[in-house]
Amino acid sequence: MRMKSSYIVVIAILVVVALAFTIGSLSGDGKPKADAKAAQAKASQLPTVQVLVAQETLHDYTVTIRGRTEAARSVVVRSESAGTVAQTPAVEGSFVRKGQVLCRLNVDARQAAVDQARALVRSRQLTRQASTDLAAKGYRSQTQVLQDQANLDNAQATLRQAEVALEQMNIRAPFDGVFDKRDAEVGAYLAPGQSCGSMIELNPILIVGDLPELETSRLRVGATASAKLLDGKVLSGRVRYVAREADAQTRTYHVEVTASNPSLAVRSGLSATVRILTGQGPAHLVPVSTLVLDAAGRQGVRHVQGDNVVAFSPVNVIEETPQGVWVSGLSGAVKVITVGQSYVAEGQKVQIGASR
Predict the structure, then answer these.
(1) End-to-end CA distance of the chain
(2) Could you read off the pLDDT of 183-193 as tens digits, one per residue?
(3) Which helix (H) or strand (E) holds 278?
(4) Residue 116, Cβ density class (10 Å: 0-12 exposed, 13-18 middle, ≥19 buried)
(5) Domain annotation covers residue 122
(6) Residue 21: φ, ψ to 5°
(7) Residue 38: partners with Cβ closer than 8 Å, 6 or more residues away
(8) Which positions fall inside the CusB-like beta-barrel domain (predicted)?
(9) Which helix or strand (DSSP H or E) is residue 337 part of?
(10) Which of 17, 227, 302, 340 could be 272's S-S partner, Cβ–Cβ 3.0 to 4.6 Å?
(11) Share of the chain above pLDDT 90, in %
(12) Considering just the CA atoms, what is the radius of gyration of the chain in Å?
């Protein structure tokens, strides 16, 4: 059957319209796809970095130095008189109280001198009393009474001198502490000024160290401090002394921290890591691997700003911990570059591969 010509015209028009729509849709979709592919290619050319979002935290500012424990006082106890050592009551290395006898010398004739002086004092007292009674009755002049009083005063002074000489036979501890070393044994002769032994005071104990000159302005007497010994023991104390003059060789300043040591368990001469609190302020905890140097040699971190552009910020290391380093110099939440920080530069645009 032959189709009418009018039908053929209508069908032809419909085919043409369909072809036009098809071609238009194809040409319209191609442009966005091309733009997307171009943008993706451009992004793929940017370096990829990984970042860590470090939050701002209030943290203690500290100064850390290497130090050692030291006796608060160390004294060589010397003889004030001459004599032979008769006894050594104090055990070497033991704790002794103030006034305890460390070495005792032979008294020789010193006890007899004391007895003689005491007898003379009693005689002078009787003479003075008799003169006073006679003067009251008018049988003795006031001058004689004054002379007898002077004689009594002289006898009392002689007695005190003899008693001091006798007491000097006992060489005593000048303070509570440890009789660390004996220098004289029984039978040894000590001349005036020769040593009986050494004493040290371990409670409180000192932790001493040397402070770099750049840190001296941050430190003050009375600041809280802690010292960690090699065995893990931690001592708490306060700064008692900061030198005003630097060591001529090292250009450092001597620092002393006092800490309680009631059991005397901490000995003198132990190595310690001393942390001294200098204040509080904002800080960020970052991995130690993120610390880099810029072209000027400043230590800092590279981080990503809001427009994915790399920036550099100089920082000061406050404290090193197993979790990372606490630094100051940053503000607010910072996207610190943890991977790729050594291969990008300030002002360069990057893409973030992963965050944590």
Answers:
(1) 77
(2) 999 999 999 99
(3) strand 271-286
(4) middle
(5) yes
(6) -60, -40
(7) none
(8) 210-276
(9) strand 334-339
(10) 227
(11) 56
(12) 45
Place of tokens 């001349």: 191
Q: Which two tokens stand for residue 98?
A: 């103030």
What is the Cα–Cα distance from 183 to 194, expressed in whole angstroms?
9
Question: If DSSP codes are grouped into helix, strand and coil, which group holds residue 305?
Answer: coil
Q: Which residue has the tokens 């055990």?
A: 91
Q: Is 295 left (phi over 0), alpha (psi -120 to 50) or beta?
A: alpha
Q: Say if residue 303 is in the same domain as residue 267.
A: no
Q: Angle formed by the axes of helices 142-167 and 110-137, to 10°?
A: 160
CATH number at residue 147: 1.10.287
Euclidean distance between CA atoms 273 and 228, whole angstroms = 5
Asked whether residue 10 is assigned to any structural domain, the reply reads no
pTM attached to this predicted model = 0.65
pLDDT in tens, the chain (356 residues): 445 555 565 566 666 656 655 655 555 554 555 455 554 555 557 888 889 999 999 988 888 889 999 999 999 999 999 999 999 999 998 999 999 999 999 988 888 999 999 999 999 999 999 989 888 888 888 899 899 899 999 999 999 999 998 998 999 999 999 999 999 999 999 999 999 999 999 999 999 999 988 888 888 899 999 999 999 999 999 999 999 999 888 899 999 999 999 989 999 999 999 999 888 889 999 999 999 998 888 999 999 998 899 999 999 888 888 899 999 889 899 999 999 888 888 889 998 885 55
Query: Per-residue b/e over 178-193, b at no fewer than 16 CB within 10 Å?
Result: bbbebbbeeeeebeee
* Residue type for position 177: G
Of the candidates 101, 69, 67, the one whose C-alpha atom is nearest the C-alpha of residue 201 is 69
How far is 243 from 256, CA to CA, in rounded Å?
9
Domain termination site, one of 229, 263, 279: 279
How many domains in the chain? 3
Give the domain extent around 292. 48-60+282-355
